[in-house]
Amino acid sequence: MPLNTMCYSFSLSTLTLLLLFPSLASLNTTNAKKQPPNNMLPSEAETLFKIMESMSSDQVWRISHPNPCQPGSSWPGIECKSAQDNHLHVTRLDFGTPPNPTCKNKATFPSQILALPYLQSAFFFNCFTHTKTTLSFSKIGESNSSLQQISLRSNPALTGPIPPQISSLKSLQILTLSQNRLTGQIPVTIFSLNSLVHLDLSYNMLTGTIPSQVGNLKNLVGLDLSYNSLTGSIPVTVGQLGLLQKLDLSSNSLTGAIPDSIEKLNLLAFMALSNNKLRGHFPRGLAKLQSLQYFIMDDNPMNVPLPVEFGDLVKLQELRLANSGYSGTIPPSFSQLMNLSTLSLQNNRLSGEIPAGFGSLPRIYHLNLSRNLLSGVVPFDSSFLNRLRRNLDLSGNPGLCLSPSVAYRMKIGVSVCGSNKTSGSVIQPLKSQAPSGLISISFFLFVPWGLLGLHQILFPV
Ligand SMILES: *[C@@H]1O[C@H](CO)[C@@H](O)[C@H](O)[C@H]1NC(C)=O
Ligand SMILES: *[C@@H]1O[C@H](CO)[C@@H](O)[C@H](O)[C@H]1NC(C)=O
Ligand SMILES: *[C@@H]1O[C@H](CO)[C@@H](O)[C@H](O)[C@H]1NC(C)=O
Ligand SMILES: *[C@@H]1O[C@H](CO)[C@@H](O)[C@H](O)[C@H]1NC(C)=O
Ligand SMILES: *[C@@H]1O[C@H](CO)[C@@H](O)[C@H](O)[C@H]1NC(C)=O
């Protein structure tokens, strides 16, 4: 739909969004400058008044701003643009958090938004909190929706299934239905929305399997289905998502192995599969994931040796593989990961020595090898130990010992070589914790595409 653009009100989140998704802000101001736009169409204004009256009692909308799109008198949370018909049209509605209109207790999902033909984005954050409501797209068909983005986040009273009719929103690029109480299966029809760039259904109560049709979303950059109750295996077709940069399937009940097809995702920077029931093996072409910076896969019954190929993923910054039954030795190839800042291998059955090269990992900041069967002399000098301090945890490896030359003052949960367990020189295991702030920072630095999703991981509401 050709829009000559004039934006009259920008909320902070609008700006954030424009920064994140500049494509949504394809500004064309030429015509609007030539001919100042006049009013809204009465029918569109009436639809808007009805939506506002049903949603928010912050103001008597109809009276306080009879021309809601007019420059200078516009409502908070609304954005209008003039189109070629020389009328002003609502292009964005934003509810739930000040300065945007707050939602009243009786607010329910306003399917009338679909009757606003120029509406491009709609946001409902922390809006449906009291009155149970469901998603409904029944107004589709009455007009063509221009919706490119719908975001419903943190709405505890939003229940029921995702209606299959959502597939009528053909222009959707960003669909965020996170931190609600949605139930039922992911409708297969959602995967016919082939303009989708970001799909986030995280933190709901969705069940069933991940449909293989997910592979149809060829434009997908971010896929987040984390924190649901999804079962079955990761579909092989995920490998068709050639533009994917972020894949988060953590905290479901997924079974089977990571499909080999995943090796085709050569733009993938963030992959999180923690807290599922995935078992070995790793994809043969794991080393092809050359963009991978974050591989987060704690808490799965993998029960295989660690693949040496992780050492080829030179962009890795975080590698988390705790609590997953890994056995055998830690591959020395891991010492090639020059950008690695976090390595979590605790609570496995890893044996043998700590690779000597670990002591010269230049960026390592957080290293947890606790509760394994590691043995031998810890290959770290005192400057390394000083640098990591409380972020180093080697406790719970009875066979490990620390060279007496570096042992003094260090509390990393390892005894000094040659001393008796019972003697006074044993250094007690330290119950240290990862400083959560540091983890947040490292997540935060990784963003441009997935700020919202990551934010939810870190700060689940
Ligand atoms: C802006 O709109 C005018 C008139 O519709 C069109 O001729 C021009 O190509 C557009 N410019 C851009 C950058 O889209
Ligand atoms: C919807 O779009 C189709 C195809 O662009 C068009 O043929 C139809 O007239 C539109 N319907 C309405 C109600 O605008
Ligand atoms: C490692 O990180 C630095 C700084 O962030 C970056 O410039 C460099 O490209 C990274 N190296 C690799 C192999 O990704
Ligand atoms: C270790 O303990 C044994 C018996 O308790 C003792 O005989 C031996 O001298 C101790 N060795 C060291 C190095 O403390
Ligand atoms: C290492 O992992 C253990 C077990 O999960 C945890 O209790 C400990 O706090 C961790 N140590 C550090 C330094 O993160």
Automatic annotation (TrEMBL):
<dbReference type="InterPro" id="IPR001611">
    <property type="entry name" value="Leu-rich_rpt"/>
</dbReference>
<keyword id="KW-0675">Receptor</keyword>
<feature type="transmembrane region" description="Helical">
    <location>
        <begin position="437"/>
        <end position="459"/>
    </location>
</feature>
<feature type="signal peptide">
    <location>
        <begin position="1"/>
        <end position="26"/>
    </location>
</feature>
<dbReference type="InterPro" id="IPR003591">
    <property type="entry name" value="Leu-rich_rpt_typical-subtyp"/>
</dbReference>
<keyword id="KW-0732">Signal</keyword>
<dbReference type="InterPro" id="IPR053038">
    <property type="entry name" value="RLP_Defense"/>
</dbReference>
<keyword id="KW-1133">Transmembrane helix</keyword>
<protein>
    <submittedName>
        <fullName>Receptor like protein 29</fullName>
    </submittedName>
</protein>
<keyword id="KW-0472">Membrane</keyword>
<dbReference type="GO" id="GO:0005886">
    <property type="term" value="C:plasma membrane"/>
</dbReference>
<keyword id="KW-0812">Transmembrane</keyword>
<keyword id="KW-0677">Repeat</keyword>
<dbReference type="Pfam" id="PF00560">
    <property type="entry name" value="LRR_1"/>
</dbReference>
<keyword id="KW-0433">Leucine-rich repeat</keyword>
<dbReference type="Pfam" id="PF13855">
    <property type="entry name" value="LRR_8"/>
</dbReference>
<keyword id="KW-1003">Cell membrane</keyword>
<dbReference type="GO" id="GO:0051707">
    <property type="term" value="P:response to other organism"/>
</dbReference>
<dbReference type="InterPro" id="IPR032675">
    <property type="entry name" value="LRR_dom_sf"/>
</dbReference>
